[in-house]
Amino acid sequence: MDRPEDYSLLDPAVQECPYAAYAAMRRDAPVYRMPETGYYVITRYQDVREALRLTDVFSNDFDTRVLSPRGQPPEVVEIYSQHGWERKRVLQTDPPDHTRYRRLVDRAFTAGRVRAMEPYIDALVHELIDEWIGDGEVEFISRFANPLPMKVIADRLGVPREDAALFKRWSDASVDSIAISTPPERQVECAWQLVEMQQYFVPLFEQRRRAPQQDILSDIVTARLEDGRMLAVPELLDLVEQLLTGGNETTTHALGAGMLLLIEHPHLVGRIRADIERLKIFVEEVLRLESPTQGTFRQVRRDVELSGVTIPAGSMVNLRYGAANRDEQMFPEPATLDLDRPNAGAHLAFISGIHHCLGAPLARQEMICAFRALLDRLEGLRLTEDRPPPHMPNFMMRGLTRLPIAFGTRK
Ligand code: HEM
User: Fold this and answer.
1) Among residues 87, 117, 180, 354, which one has the fewest Cβ atoms lying within 10 Å of its Cβ?
2) How remote is the CA of residue 6 from the centroid of ligand 1, in Å?
3) Which CATH number do you get for residue 122?
4) Cα separation of 182 and 125, whole Å?
5) Predicted TM-score of the model (pTM)
């Protein structure tokens, strides 16, 4: 197997380890038309960056229903219109709309604000570790990688941490609702769960408008667009959904991937523990090697050429960050976790350009606080099973759903 056609990115076995498929595509067909779907998959670093730069050609403003090959069941629209609010996308748009909305949320996680959160995140990390350090083993995803980002985003949004189980359910529903292989029954279930989320947040919008607090909900309900208008309910709901899902699943996957990489590279632990600069590069290498968002879509507005291939207007393009981040032209020995890599931070796990991840400074800070504390307090990290657990089968995201580990303690 070594030609692009030998692999299907929809095949769960390929999704488990897609890197040979990506290498074949980068080499033989960097703009690869997937026969199963007609999507054009872009795998070279420079091509992905170019597509992200040309926002008027590679549009983020498309109807997500084109991504459901089996179509969306008609009940889905009815569920929203009869029991909730229409789903509107405000950040998955193009300028000038995107610029307008992005400005409103840009302030939430600036580098300065996130630096100020460091002692708070440290405290949260230690609280979580305290819960299980005495046991000598833990299921790392459910007891650490999942609750950490969930609690942080709940606190920042200004909603009770105790509702974390609800947020997890809605966050999963939001991801599944636009995943290309979600079956119709699950699409209907997701619509009901997202309506439940809408019904939870709408009264809070009203409450914060009347009595604003120091949280993101208050920021967005009191914000005004440049024409003086306040955001309407569907606009507010989309921002909340983006923050909940953007802030959770991805960071959980990055934390899980980082723990597995530490277990697989015990010889690197000493250097990472001893030197904060190595820890920062470790975090970038985790994001580069195991990008939680493996790819996202854009729709081509006019015929455009990349790597000598013409992509016709109207086509759906999948920008494959997971492949670009292992492009040997950009990252020599791309599969190696290299703590001295000079351009480790140039990866596209948070993409580049106007849609650059809003939560990148926060995600990086959570990862640094997490691995600093974990390495400070634990040693002899190992798996409790013979083999690492599988990744969830998914075309867009990459992440472990469980990771049972054992360890000794240092402090
Ligand atoms: C390791 C963790 C994370 C990863 C890998 C990640 C990845 C990404 C990627 C790839 C995009 C671009 C999507 C596209 O335009 O196609 C994005 C956008 C975004 N992310 Fe993140 N993200 C992470 C954490 C977060 C956190 C913690 C938050 C918020 C608390 C967040 C909020 C957002 C938002 C709101 C956008 C939309 C930005 C826009 O379109 O202008 N993300 N993220």
Assistant:
1) 354
2) 31
3) 1.10.630.10
4) 34
5) 0.96
